[in-house]
Specification:
By secondary structure, the protein is α+β, with helices and mostly antiparallel strands. The chain contains ten helices and 25 strands. The protein folds into two domains: about 1-155 and about 345-425, Zn peptidases (Aminopeptidase), CATH 3.40.630; about 155-340, no CATH class. It binds zinc ion. Zinc ion binds near residues 93 and 118.
């Protein structure tokens, strides 16, 4: 279907990096108006297009991750793959948009939702409140052909903080820097089950077994990333022997430090005892159902702060995990707050999911149901609807999104478009 690639080329010619999507938004509105769709826009810039009596709403985000020379994206087609020469391609989620443009040209009863700034924290989806006419939502942002996503994790950040007090260090204490670095790192959702060690936990567990006091402490990169590095400055009465060979110890000759942290014990116990990683596994979907990541340790103006990202595949377990984590840190003297709650899209084989599977099985024999242990727009979008909406996410195969190697399989685009049309057709009588 050359028309879809042509739509994709046209979309790609318009800049749409996250936060800089105004031109793209105008293009979508013009396109929809020309096809006699009614167009609604909300305050953040989500665009909802409606025509006739739709039963299904197609959805994609219209921003993209811009890496490399995205001022002018040069498309290359090679051996059935579409790529960009020196930049991200934006097939995530531009190919989904192209399929929607194509479907808008061929259907009289259709609803299409274009969300804004997905790539920078589901911004559009988290504020979408316009009521849908359809009772089914078909998101086109999945990245593996033939798979049907029916759920995603919810998340909440748990922040523990502790006011630090300092006491003078005796001259006779030995000072050391213990450094964990070059750990692999990864995403705190989709990589949390990959047995990737956390630099913060490696350091924390070592400290639990040492007779030391803390002088300074920091670690991690982002709340939602498995920590790659962590550093502690410690003071010890005796020469220090560290057991973990992944940790690097350096004696500090210069006495730049004069005080130690009075709350050292509580902090070391918290880091040592914190249970990082997968807390419960879903055997049916073969993904984690509950997990937590202690992502960042920071220290600002005498307040030590530990940032944790908690996730669960249903809201009830998410609330329990957050409450347990809160209680854990409070028992050690920390103050705790929760931030940025977003609800889970609980995996469920709904009648709509079965309808999508049936359409998909005409092309893909297996068409398995999947869920992901990270946040997707679907979860946010249906949470804010006044009535129950059944959502499913599918999409063509996109490899290495958000990188210069991003590529999309064109045969999978055609197949996905056919399936989308088949699904729409099942509502025609
Ligand atoms: Zn995407």
């Amino acid at each position: 279907m050359e028309q879809i690639v042509e739509h994709f080329r046209a979309i790609t010619a318009i800049p749409r990096c996250s936060y800089h999507t105004a031109q793209m938004k105008e293009r979508i509105k013009t396109f929809a108006h020309a096809l006699a769709f009614t167009v609604h826009e909300d305050a953040v810039g989500n665009i909802l297009c409606q025509k006739g009596e739709p039963k299904v709403c197609l959805q994609a985000h219209y921003d993209m991750v811009c890496i490399g020379d995205t001022q002018k994206i040069e498309i290359v087609i090679e051996a059935g793959l579409i790529k960009a020469k020196n930049s991200t391609l934006g097939a995530d989620n531009g190919m989904g948009m192209a399929i929607m443009f194509w479907a808008m040209e061929h259907n009289e009863n259709l609803e299409c939702l274009f969300t804004v700034d997905e790539e920078v924290g589901l911004i559009g989806a988290m504020q979408f409140e316009m009521p849908l006419k359809s009772s089914s939502l078909l998101n086109l942002d999945a990245e593996e052909e033939g798979e049907i996503y029916i759920g995603c994790a919810g998340g909440v950040d748990v922040i523990a903080s502790l006011n630090l007090h300092f006491e003078p260090l005796s001259e006779s204490m030995h000072l050391y820097e213990i450094h964990a670095f070059d750990f692999l790192g990864g995403h705190s959702g989709v990589d949390i089950d990959k047995k990737i060690p956390s630099a913060i936990k490696a350091l924390g567990y070592e400290l639990l077994n040492q007779d030391v006091v803390l002088v300074a402490l920091e670690g991690g990169e982002r709340r939602n990333a498995i920590p790659k590095s962590a550093t502690a400055i410690v003071a010890s009465k005796r020469p220090l022997h560290v057991n973990d060979s992944r940790l690097h110890v350096k004696p500090l000759e210069q006495r730049n430090y004069t005080h130690f942290i009075a709350e050292s014990n509580a902090i070391m116990r918290a880091l040592g005892a914190f249970a990082q990683g997968v807390r419960e596994w879903d055997r049916t979907l073969d993904i984690p159902s509950i997990s937590i990541n202690l992502g960042v340790i920071s220290n600002q103006e005498g307040v030590l702060r530990l940032d944790c990202a908690a996730r669960a595949m249903d809201d009830e377990n998410l609330a329990i995990l957050a409450a347990e984590t809160e209680a854990f840190f409070k028992a050690l003297g920390f103050e705790v707050t929760q931030e940025g709650w977003h609800g889970a899209w609980k995996p469920e084989v709904t009648p709509f999911a079965l309808r999508v599977q049936e359409a998909m099985q005409s092309i893909y024999a297996h068409a398995p149901f999947k869920a992901i242990h990270a946040g997707l727009e679907c979860g946010e979008l249906i949470a804010r609807q006044p009535r129950k909406i059944e959502a499913v996410s599918i999409g063509p195969t996109i490899r290495y999104p958000h990188s210069l190697r991003e590529e999309c399989d064109l045969a999978s685009v055609d197949k996905t478009a056919l399936i989308v049309q088949k699904i729409i057709n099942t509502y025609k009588d």
